[in-house]
Amino acid sequence: MVSRVIPVDSFDLVIFGGTGDLARRKILPGLFRRFCAGQMPPEAQIVGAARSEMDDSGYREFVAEAIHEFAGPLSEDAAQVEGFLERVCYVAIDAKGEAGWEELKSKVREDLVHAFYFSVAPSLFGDIAERLHLHGLAGDESRIVVEKPFGKDLDSARELNATLAKHFDEHQIYRIDHYLGKETVQNLMAVRFGNVLFEPLWNAQYVDHIQITVAETVGVGGRGSYYDASGAMRDMVQNHLMQLLCLIAMEPPAKFEPDAVRDEKLKVIRALEPVEPYHIVRGQYDKSKDAPGYRQDVENPRSFTESFLALKLHISNWRWAGTPFYLRTGKKLKARTSEIVVVFKDAPHSIFGADAGRHRNVLAIRLQPNEGMTLDVTIKEPGPGGMRLVDVPLDMTFADALGPEAEQATEAYERLIMDVIRGNQTLFMRGDEVEAAWAWTDPIIAGWTARSDVPKPYDQGGSGPEDSLMLMHRDGRRWRELKG
Ligand code: NAD
């Protein structure tokens, strides 16, 4: 199957933090892949802007290395790499001072789309926004892309929104959550709203419960001090899992347009009920025979920050009243997997009698690895011997079904950056959405802080603390097994 590549308008993309880890691993390799796909018009230009003193050729070397390390097999095509590097230049800039800004202004051409990617610490967002304005680079054709974390609570998110709003309109601000750029996440909307099959069943009457899991096998790595100040709630649930929850639970928007979609997501967040303490399980990975535990990793022997979190939520609206949503995320678990699982209710009556056992339809939407979906359907077990039933998955791994094109199209960052250039905000979070998510999150964190809640230790390479299994067992349910 051949995917259509629609070239975008010509643009100047400035990456503040162009020498940082995110630029090196995701943004630059992603742009290179779009270049190879033929999506970049010939005049497009990418300007790295960061603190290091470097000239254009030094930066091109940096970009070439990033491509070779992170862009996959396409990086072996020397002519493509060369062609891409010709689009790249560099300005040494100080976000907090005057150095470099006039030079940057001279590189940004008139009458093109201007995108400014803030791939720097959030503490620099205000300085950069201010200087873009002072140097006449914040015109209506300019867009800014801001990275997570977007605040650490409601107050700081409001402050950040207010800072950006001084110089940019909401329609110019692209708050990135790379989960929304994943192929399957968009497919979730296609499956829900492009088929008649699912939507009639997508409610409390037919859905028993929904599980959302984002599990990692890695620990906190080199991000110890950052992570210890945030934990799984701020790092994963408030943003990524919340976005997935919104897409799975929202009402059909009237159109697939940015504000129509985001209005519906916002309604979901606002309909979330406060979470009871006994519906919250926090954990910390314990030390093992040959690996340090969470507290050693973050070098804080008295840390009470969670590296695992499981929650049971309710959405109080007509569609979902009574259907629980179970969310879980954690580090150092047995598999790296992100999955949304919709478990449908039992058939109202079994004509096959008790011996046929209990069978349910389960729709599992896998974000990683191997993006795809499976739908468990109940069939007759083949062979003689009466009517025995068995559940078999209808498996649609996108790479199998759609060919290598689908596999190549999986990088979220590149899709989202192209959306910025196109001016399409559908897959980006609006300011009020982020604030609503914090307004729901803050009291939960305040609650466990006030209770001096101590996270439960859990084994590395397992499924999280025992209490998380109990959260489900109490309701006669169980988590889907973590499989990589
Ligand atoms: P990094 O520390 O690797 O890079 C920071 C960049 O900012 C460097 O290019 C540096 O030169 C530049 N910089 C610092 N101070 C500056 C100043 N005063 N003036 C101009 N430039 C300055 O950081 P990173 O990991 O690339 O992260 C960048 C942003 O992206 C952060 O907000 C981070 O939270 C977010 N983020 C990163 C990742 C990731 O995987 N690295 C993932 C999600 C979000």
Automatic annotation (TrEMBL):
Span list, region Disordered: 451-470
GO terms for MF: glucose-6-phosphate dehydrogenase activity; NADP binding
Sites where the protein binds substrate: H178, K182, E216, D235, K331
Keywords: Carbohydrate metabolism, Glucose metabolism, NADP, Oxidoreductase
Listed GO biological process terms: glucose metabolic process; pentose-phosphate shunt, oxidative branch
Pathway: Carbohydrate degradation; pentose phosphate pathway; D-ribulose 5-phosphate from D-glucose 6-phosphate (oxidative stage): step 1/3
InterPro entries with a match to the protein in the record: G6P_DH (IPR001282), G6P_DH_AS (IPR019796), G6P_DH_C (IPR022675), G6P_DH_NAD-bd (IPR022674), NAD(P)-bd_dom_sf (IPR036291)
Catalysed reactions, semicolon-separated: D-glucose 6-phosphate + NADP(+) = 6-phospho-D-glucono-1,5-lactone + NADPH + H(+)
Boundaries of every Glucose-6-phosphate dehydrogenase NAD-binding domain copy: 14-187
Short name of any one Pfam family annotated for the protein: G6PD_N
PANTHER family: GLUCOSE-6-PHOSPHATE 1-DEHYDROGENASE, GLUCOSE-6-PHOSPHATE 1-DEHYDROGENASE G6PD
Family named by the database record: Belongs to the glucose-6-phosphate dehydrogenase family.
Chain's role: Catalyzes the oxidation of glucose 6-phosphate to 6-phosphogluconolactone.
Name by which UniProt lists this protein: Glucose-6-phosphate 1-dehydrogenase
Naturally occurring in which organism (per UniProt): Puniceibacterium sediminis
